[in-house]
Specification:
The structure holds three protein chains of three kinds.
Chain A lengths: L2 H15 L15 E5 L8 E7 L2 E12 L10 E8 L14 H16 L9 E3 L2 E13 L4 H14 L2 E6 L2 E10 L7 E8 L2 E4 L3 H6 L2 E7 L3 E7 L6 H23 L1
Parallel strand pairs in A: 4-6
Antiparallel strand pairs in A: 1-2, 2-3, 3-6, 5-6, 7-8, 9-10, 9-11, 11-12
Helix pairs in contact in A: 2-3
Chain B lengths: L8 E2 L4 E4 L2 E2 L3 E4 L2 E4 L3 E6 L2 E6 L11 E9 L3 E5 L6 E4 L21 E9 L5 E8 L4 E4 L5 H5 L4 H10 L2 E4 L4 E5 L3 H16 L6 H12 L3
Chain C lengths: L8 E2 L2 E2 L11 E5 L7 E7 L2 E12 L12 E8 L14 H17 L8 E11 L4 H16 L8 E8 L2 E4 L3 H6 L2 E8 L4 E5 L2 E2 L3 H35 L2
Parallel strand pairs in C: 6-7
Antiparallel strand pairs in C: 1-2, 3-4, 4-5, 5-7, 8-9, 8-10, 10-11, 10-12
Classes of the chains: A alpha+beta, B alpha+beta, C alpha+beta.
């Protein structure tokens, strides 16, 4: 039983009935976002450390050479992994990723993959040799809305990524031949439903109080959506969430690309 | 002799004094006394104590704390009090007919209550009495070691908080504070003031600064 | 160790220009995380390590509880992207061993009797690794534990020394660790000088060992000075916050 959830969710819900959030934000307002690109640049080809309010996530990109998928022999490969490290919350446990981590990884992955943010065709090297981009999302402090923090940091890290030199079948570490080809900046925006209200970027208290949530990842089109958690949305809720997502994503895109 | 000044900060393993009497959060080796925690030394003549600046709440006799009912048992309730140790509150605190009644009638899972701690033994078995329900309101957590400052000398700080914010405030020694008001802005102001007290707990003149802050925020 | 010929000392200086008894640059900070009881961040050369403490809290499973004291467990983990060749996430034999020796060292100074029946969990996340992570981790873990308010008889300080091109030097960096002849990480309780962690691999003569050990202890004492300042400053800083 999550003690903190029981202590605070009623108050958050009551407050929101009056249209107010516990940290005084507007319903469609994100917490402050700070991004440090190249955080692990001594080792990782690409990286970004994000502060989304109190939530802290570090994303590192590793580049390796391997075999393509048989059905797409001329295309590079990307994979996304999320580690909800126990340091990030007293509620997280050690061990292999559980369903929450896997869901976050898959939603972030879909946004990047379906928007074509990584130009995978350009990651072809030679027959049976392509670049593999590993997106490793390391969650360090859970202040709520890990999903958006992870998705935003992931695309920021990809924008920071260099491609290592590849010579005679060996990846030369620490030497670079260019930047990873990134074509667009998909941004996830998560909406929590609390009572009959929708709020973006729920903090921890709001996550305790929310019934369900919807994540919409956009570029100039919608690239990924995910409803998560028990509870229901009306189709009006979803329409309004999509509109807000486009608007918010544009604001965040400027921070990510800046 | 003390090797540190009154109000000096110390860290674990630091020499505090020789042939002195230090009773809390320290370690004696031969004639020497060392601190076991990070915190502030208070010296009075040849005796002293070290006030920790962080740490979990450990139950103490006569403390009034804010608890959460986590389980309804046949004989009473299991209560979380923000400490590593859970406790059972006996059904007799609510009814004489413990065995015949459904105890969730009185306190159910998720109910927030203030309770008093009596009798604590060395493995932290303890009893809770005098429950009172805390309906609605916001419960925030602060560093339990800072609670004495939130209350203040002879409850002076708490009185200022209550008067100047207009909120109903109940401070649990376990680091949980319950705040209630019909006006969300007032609750927000109280939270802001309490967080300031928590941050600046080890400074002097804090009462005045809090009073000023609340006066300046009034009506905003 | 030495698998490949590489000159590590040129004109009496090390590859990164340090003197034989010189530490890499070190930065420390405590109280960096929201959801832990205590936390610390240490940058040491190109190493970046985060440590956090949960607890004392209820220990599970119940039958393994110790009614006389708390059980302290440290978990050391490397981020996949913390090294040149991506590390597969999850514990391997190396990180399990390091977790254990750090747990042992911290348990030797923590006053665990104060919290019977509970568990204290220390988590160490290596965000970027560049030789000597176990010493950096133990320094960060010890800071986080002190920051969390768990009573300790002393802090734990650590530093490694080693042998490169026949010379005994302090605090090996990546190339020196890879191509040098020996690595000797040491953790001490600075107040009493007790040895809390000692590992060695490579080869050293009896005399070289003594020299290397003394050098490592000297390094650890310098690190202790920084740890002490970090903790004291963190308490002063609390006052100044708005």
């Amino acid at each position: 039983m999550n003690i903190e959830e029981y202590l605070r969710r009623d108050y958050v819900a009551t407050l929101l009935k009056e249209g107010r959030r516990i940290d005084n934000r507007k319903l469609d307002e994100f917490r402050e976002i700070k991004i440090e690109k190249g955080y692990s640049s001594e080792k990782a080809p690409g990286s970004a450390f994000i502060y989304l309010g109190n939530t802290k996530v570090l994303v590192g990109i590793s580049m390796d050479v391997g075999e393509p998928y048989p059905d797409r022999p001329e295309s590079g490969v990307m994979t996304t992994n999320v580690e909800l490290r126990p340091i990030a919350s007293p509620l997280f446990e050690s061990g292999p990723p559980r369903e929450k981590a896997i869901e976050i990884a898959r939603v972030v992955d879909r946004g990047i993959r379906e928007s074509g943010a990584i130009d995978l065709e350009k990651l072809y090297i030679e027959e049976d040799r392509v670049w593999i981009a590993f997106i490793d999302i390391h969650v360090l402090d859970d202040g709520g809305n890990i999903l958006d923090a992870a998705g935003i940091a992931a695309i920021a890290a990809l924008l920071d990524t260099r491609i290592p030199r590849y010579e005679d079948g060996v990846v030369v570490r620490g030497e670079w031949t260019g930047k990873l080809p990134v074509t667009c900046t998909p941004v996830p925006v998560t909406h929590a439903k609390i009572g009959d209200k929708l709020v973006v970027d729920p903090n921890l208290e709001e996550e305790y109080a929310r019934e369900t949530q919807l994540t919409v990842t956009t570029t100039d089109t919608i690239n990924a959506m995910q409803k998560s958690g028990i509870g229901a949305f009306s189709s009006e809720d979803v329409d309004s969430a999509i509109d807000t997502s486009f608007k918010k994503a544009q604001e965040i895109r400027e921070i990510v690309e800046g | 002799m003390f090797k540190v000044e009154d109000r000096e900060f110390v860290i674990p393993g630091q020499l505090v004094g020789e042939n002195v009497c230090c009773t809390e959060n320290c370690l004696n080796e031969d004639d020497k006394v060392y601190s076991t925690i990070q915190g502030m030394v208070r010296v009075k003549g040849n005796s002293g104590k070290i006030i920790p600046s962080s740490g979990v709440y450990t139950p103490k006799r006569d403390d009034v704390v804010i608890g959460l009912v986590v389980e309804v048992l046949e004989c009473g309730w299991l209560v979380d009090i923000n400490s590593p140790y859970m406790s059972v509150m006996m059904g007799e605190e609510a009814t004489r007919n413990v065995m015949e009644e459904d105890l969730s009638r009185y306190y159910d899972i998720g109910d927030k209550i203030s309770v008093k701690i009596i009798r604590v033994n060395e493995v932290y078995d303890f009893d809770l009495i005098k429950p009172r329900k805390l309906n609605e309101g916001l419960i925030i957590n602060v560093n339990p070691k800072r609670i004495p400052r939130v209350v203040g000398k002879r409850r002076s700080m708490l009185e200022i908080l209550r008067k100047k914010t207009g909120c109903n405030i109940m401070v649990g020694q376990n680091g949980r504070i319950w705040i209630k008001s019909d006006r969300p802005d007032d609750v927000g102001l109280a939270v802001k003031a309490i967080k300031k007290i928590e941050r600046e707990a080890q400074t002097s003149g804090l009462t005045n600064r809090i009073e000023n802050m609340l006066d300046n925020n009034w009506g905003k | 160790m030495a698998e490949k010929e590489m000159k590590l000392i040129v004109d009496g200086k090390r590859l990164d220009g340090r003197k034989f008894d010189e530490l890499r640059e070190i930065k420390m900070e405590v109280n960096v995380l929201e959801r832990t009881m205590g936390s610390a961040y240490v940058e040491w050369g190109n190493n970046k390590v985060l440590a956090g403490v949960h607890g004392p809290r209820e220990f599970h499973p119940k039958f393994l509880r110790d009614p006389r004291k708390a059980i302290l467990t440290c978990t050391y983990n490397m981020a996949a992207f913390s090294v040149d060749d991506r590390k597969r996430p999850g514990p391997d034999r190396r990180s399990v061993e390091i977790s254990k020796v750090i747990s042992d060292a911290l348990s030797s100074v923590a006053v665990l009797e104060k919290y019977p029946n509970t568990g204290i969990d220390v988590f160490v996340e290596v965000l970027q690794a560049d030789a000597g992570t176990r010493c950096v981790s133990i320094v960060a873990a010890s800071l986080a534990l002190a920051n969390s308010g768990v009573p300790m008889k002393d802090l734990v300080s650590a530093c490694a020394s080693g042998k490169i091109d026949g010379e005994i030097v302090l605090d090996l960096m990546k190339e020196e660790d890879n191509y040098g002849e020996c690595d000797l990480p040491v953790a001490i309780s600075p107040r009493r000088g007790d040895i809390l962690l000692l590992q060695m691999d490579g080869n050293l003569t009896r005399e070289e060992y003594t020299k290397a050990y003394n050098l490592a202890v000297e390094g650890a004492k310098k690190v202790y000075g920084m740890q002490k300042k970090t903790l004291l400053d963190s308490m002063v800083n609390l006052e100044e916050g708005e």
